[in-house]
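Fig. S4 source data, part A: sequence.
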Amino acid sequence: MALFGSKKKDAKLGFPADPKWVHGEGGRFPKFLELDPEAAGLSGMSAVFAIWHTGAKPGWVYVGNSSDLAATFLELAENPDVLQFQNRGSMYCSWCLIREEFQSGVVGFLTRATKPEVENPDAPPEGTVELIPVYPPGMVPDEVKEAARKETEERARAATEAASVSENGEPAEMESDEESGDHASAGPSPSFAPTLEIDAEPSSSELEDGADSQEPEAESGDDAVPNDADTGA
């Protein structure tokens, strides 16, 4: 089944990109209620984020964006609508650095794709923004990860060669990913060509250990969330 259930309607969106979701220690996603967002350096950070839970029936809890991720996480950690899921399995979170002008499009896509169980009052209403397709946490196919790894290595090699000698004989300044906008998912990348027919419901094994897991069931029951085993991918 297509990610949204309608291939014709959503075909124009193209293939989702890998927004580089952040992992914690050991390559696993952070447990939401054990994360100290201020100690993790999230104060003042602008990012898109997702929260999900594991258990017998894992699911997506909340999707949004924030200009101060630490403050938002601290607020959501006291939100009873979010906390009701803490006894259904472990709760995990992740975030990705997206340029602010693209965040609404990414949140709009993820909201529509994952159908979070807690409504985000600040999420853009359907049809008000141009959706930007990205893979949810734990849903990035292995071939896409490998392509991204090779691309990163190639860019690092090229940057090293370019920095070794500049026109005036001095090392050239290298543009950081943040400056170049590499973290901005402005749309599908030609290097990613997976199918949109992703299973979007996380399994309990993938979600509980914080590894990359599949998404929780959507209303259609076919969307996936990352499971405990996957939360470390």
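Fig. S4 source data, part B ends here. The two ends are 24 Å apart (CA to CA).
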